[in-house]
Amino acid sequence: MAAQDPVLDQDGVRLTVDDAIATVTLTNPAKRNVQSPALWRALTEAGRRLPGSVRVVVLRAEGKSFSAGLDRQAFTPEGFDGEPSFLDLARGSDAELDAAIAEYQEAFTWWRRSDILSVAAVQGHAIGAGFQLALACDLRVVADDVQFAMRETSLGLVPDLTGTHPLVGLVGYARALEICVTGRFVLAEEAVRSGLASLAVPADQLADAVSDLTSAVLAAPRDAVIETKALLQGALSRDLKTQRAAERAAQSRRLRDLAGLGE
Question: What predicted TM-score, i.e. pTM, was given to this entire model?
Answer without folding.
Answer: 0.94
